[in-house]
User: Which sequence fits this backbone?
């Protein structure tokens, strides 16, 4: 029944009851929210194996016969084929899928803008290997480009991981590297946020990573 058909006294009583129920429900929602908030587990700090790459971390092979061995620049062919790696500080940081790295070595003159050539070593360029859309691992196609199997996101590893197709919102995150004692080492944190990382988190991780690996 609508209020228009009710006597004035009934309208006031109905409004009071409705208002009281609304207040009670609101208090209930607030209380429940407080309880849920109190029960929500605090965000755990990452373990050493989950920490993101940091300056000084050595890159090691993620698979193959050389698994867990440091990657020597001289051993990489300039064929543009993808190699998977993990960063290793005091421990191997392979307990966070987002730490998977992919690297490529190209012949002189193949890398092009917006790749940051100053952050590569003898044609070797390194990226976070996780798609910037929803976090799947990217694969390499025969033409050398990268394709994400989840929603067909495509990237060009010769051009700084630029998006060349599909839904990814930004290029792959290039990881600056250098050579130390013949092996590939992280120089500094990613040049842009990697998958799942806010700009604020990226800035924090970038500052932490510059202090050195752990
Ligand atoms: S997760 Fe890679 S395109 Fe969607």
Assistant:
């Amino acid at each position: 029944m609508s209020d228009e058909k009710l006597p004035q006294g009934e309208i006031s009583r109905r409004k009071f009851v409705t208002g009281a129920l609304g207040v009670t429900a609101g208090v209930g929602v607030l209380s429940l929210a407080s309880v849920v908030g109190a029960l929500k587990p605090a965000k755990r700090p990452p373990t050493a194996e989950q920490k993101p790459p940091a300056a000084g971390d050595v890159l090691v092979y993620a698979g193959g016969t050389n698994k867990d061995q440091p990657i020597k620049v001289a051993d990489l062919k300039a064929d543009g084929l993808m190699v998977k790696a993990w960063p290793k500080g005091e421990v191997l940081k392979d307990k966070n899928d987002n730490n998977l790295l992919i690297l490529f070595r190209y012949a002189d003159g193949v890398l092009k803008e917006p790749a940051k050539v100053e952050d590569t070593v003898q044609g070797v360029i390194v990226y976070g290997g996780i798609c910037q859309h929803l976090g799947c691992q990217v694969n390499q196609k025969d033409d050398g480009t990268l394709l994400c199997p989840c929603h067909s996101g495509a990237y060009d590893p010769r051009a700084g991981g630029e998006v060349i197709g599909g839904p990814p919102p930004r290029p792959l995150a290039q990881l600056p590297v250098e050579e130390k004692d013949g092996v590939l080492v992280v120089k500094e944190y990613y040049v842009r946020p990697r998958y799942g990382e806010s700009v604020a988190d990226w800035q924090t991780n970038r500052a932490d990573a510059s202090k050195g690996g752990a």
In short: The chain has a mean pLDDT of 86. The domain at 58-210 is CATH 2.102.10.10 (Rieske Iron-sulfur Protein).
